[in-house]
Amino acid sequence: MSDETYLDLSDLTLAYGKTVAVESLNLSIRKGELIALLGPSGCGKTTTMRAITGLLRPASGKITLDGADITYVPANKRHVGLVFQSYALFPHLTVFENVAFGLRLKKLPTVEINQRVEAGLAMVGLGKFHSRKPAELSGGQQQRVALARSLVMEPKVLLLDEPLSNLDARLRLEMRTELQRVQRESGVTMVFVTHDQNEALALADRIVVMKEGAIEQVGSPEDVYNRPQSRFVADFVGFENIFPVEGDSIRTEAGAMQLSAKPAAGASGLAWRPNMVTLGEGRFEGEVLGAAFAGGSREYLLKSPLGPIKAEMDASAPAFEPGSTVAFDLPPERAAVLERM
Ligand SMILES: Nc1ncnc2c1ncn2[C@@H]1O[C@H](COP(=O)(O)OP(=O)(O)OP(=O)(O)O)[C@@H](O)[C@H]1O
């Protein structure tokens, strides 16, 4: 992966008529990166992808790719590939012809078409499936054909819209690994859209978290998972106990509460995952409202003066009974420090 910006979205505002869907978006992507656009429904992921492919003309802003301004370059001249959620394979064509389709339209020499299709099918592990029709393939195999069909066009950037959402859970895991391998081997810069945080965490080099048409946070999976900058991102990646900071304290249902140390300077909120809450000792007390066995751990819901608290403990630790009162703590040194609430 190079350090230089390869695909750059600069001050991009995207609208459907008068409805602004994405406002002043800035994002720089490096060559060979695997980027996930992550966010809830309606946050502008697909709209951003449509602008990169050239299917939506920006209201303002600029898109550059590989040094060229492509803001107003037609979709078919951008060297940007797109893999849809619903593969969109031609049912009457064989796997080979599906993959060869775009190359034939470009009127490339037959020898080159054959070479590129063979290489593309080998890349996605479908070397032996040339003459099958899409209906004779599993969902995962159809997805691979769609991937090969885009790769043989040698795009500068490949966009994937919810690429794994049509697959069952087991296949989705398998295709995650596969997609990562294909990306590494081909070196193609990829941007994929997902609303599944686990998928983004598992696959991406960097995650772009979007909310209401704007970027909330950009970072590595570790950054986003461990160091969410805002309440929205913390919530999205599984923090359950989130409190605003007020001076030296956190603001709770029972008013300001001090922790065992002052919150970091500049913090506007603190957040704990359930497994970051100390149970069995600490400065606070709560009543166990519910307990659920979750394999390796037990999950608890506590009613406390601070408000509801979700905690999790190793299943090997003694269990707390519903109705009992338990001491707990919110250790400040374990909390994620939120810059924005
Ligand atoms: N063709 C359209 N005309 C008008 N508004 C649209 C159109 N397409 C999308 N929008 C609006 O733009 C905003 C962003 O939509 P977009 O499809 O980009 O979201 P998304 O993050 O991809 O959501 P999802 O995960 O549901 O696909 C939404 O408020 C949506 O209602």
Low-confidence stretches: none
Label the CATH architecture of the largest domain: 3-Layer(aba) Sandwich
Question: How do the SSEs run, as a string of H and E?
Answer: EEEHEEEHHHEHEHEEHHEEEEEEEEE
Could you state the CATH homologous superfamily of the largest domain?
A: P-loop containing nucleotide triphosphate hydrolases
In percent, how much strand structure appears in the residues?
35-45%
- CATH top level assignment of the largest domain: Alpha Beta
Q: Kindly report how far apart the N and C termini lie.
A: 34 Å
Number of helices: 8
Radius of gyration: 24 Å
What binds here, in terms of ligands, is:
adenosine-5'-triphosphate
Structural class: alpha+beta
List keywords for this structure.
8 helices, binds adenosine-5'-triphosphate, five-stranded antiparallel beta sheet, six-stranded mixed beta sheet, single chain, 2 domains, alpha+beta, 341 residues, OB fold (Dihydrolipoamide Acetyltransferase, E2P), Rossmann fold
In short:
Helix content is 25%, strand content 36%. The chain has helices spanning 45-53, 95-105, 110-123, 139-151, 169-186, 197-203, 221-226, 231-236, and strands at 5-16, 19-30, 34-38, 60-65, 68-69, 80-83, 157-161, 189-194, 206-211, 214-219, 241-246, 249-252, 255-258, 269-272, 278-294, 297-304, 307-314, 325-329, 336-338.
